[in-house]
Amino acid sequence: MEFTHVSVLLQEAVDALKVKPDGVYVDATAGAGGHSAEILRRLGEGGRLLCFDQDPDAIAVLRERFKDDARVTVIQTNFSSIRSVLGAQGVKSVDGILADLGVSSHQLDTASRGFSFHADAPLDMRMSQSGVSAADLCNTLSQKELARIFWQYGEEKCAKAIARNIVLAREQKPIETTLELAELVKASIPARMRRTGGHPARRTFQALRIAVNGELDHLKAALDDMFDSLSVGGRLAVITFHSLEDRMVKQKFASLCTGCTCPPDFPVCVCGKTPRGGQPQKALSPGEPELTRNPRARSARLRVIEKIKDEENLE
Fold first, then answer.
1. Do 95 and 175 share a structural domain?
2. Using CA atoms in the order 72, 55, 213, 36, what is the torsion angle rounded to 10 degrees?
3. Using an 8 Å Cβ cutoff, are 53 and 82 in contact?
4. Neighbour-count burial for 285-300, b at 16+ CB within 10 Å, e otherwise
């Protein structure tokens, strides 16, 4: 099976991990293994890499790609399960974790996966290829809930009109394909608003994909667990691709790096809070050379946090 994906911010993300030859690392969204291969290139014989992905297509490719490398363990799972998975593997803590939150090129370019509004295919969007699909949501959720998803996850200004037209259309027949939905969305947006911002269905498809895969819920659950899984001195590097993800990562990292929260007029600290993490670098975006090679990387942001203290050691 061919599973193509262009690894975004490849060198920058792996550089940020400060890979130690004998360290233990997790590629939490391994995909086709681009970031994983670069981590392995820097690991010594005593190192270990755990590759996670929820997509069975990616798992098949990872197992084939790294089948002869004893340092690699490939596990089909969502990264929000990191603590239980590491426990099952007998790993108490790791030296670095990388999470690339982008949709893979394989998922976008394989029409049958139903992620793209450019080709006609079953309306699917399930990264794990199991559970509730985008078609299920479009054909069963209430108009109010559909509008909420389109607004909250896609920041779609015409969310109410799109949701209303979906409900009207499904009364005649179920909405089953990507182009059916794309055309319906296009017809729901005034012509003057369709002239800017790219394809008119882009935001709606993003919102559905996030809802189908529970992306923000998984990320919220995973951020604390990924940080807690680090050894002191270990680093977590996260690559985001839209503002909702980036805001969540930015705020979580800021809270982990926050110390005393006592009012400024207190003569001494009484809250006892000290920072658990530090941010060794500012957020990074791809440079023009990378954007020329891979325009899909335009919205990517890399944020990094280093663990400086375990929770149980806080005073």
1. no
2. 30
3. no
4. ebeeebeeeeeebeeb
Say whether 52 sits in a helix, a strand or coil.
strand
Torsion of CA 121, 127, 131, 135, to 10 degrees: -30
Domain with 193, as residue range(s), is: 118-213
- Return the CATH number at 196: 1.10.150.170
Tell me how many domains the chain contains. Answer: 2
Assess whether 199 and 235 both reside in one domain.
Answer: no
Provide the whole-model pTM.
Answer: 0.91
Mean pLDDT split into 10-residue runs, the chain, 315 residues: 72 98 98 97 98 96 97 98 97 98 85 91 96 98 98 96 98 97 96 84 96 96 97 98 96 93 83 91 96 92 96 52
Asked if residue 300 lies in contact with residue 239, where contact means CB atoms within 8 angstroms, the answer is: yes
Q: Residue 74: beta bridge partners?
A: 51
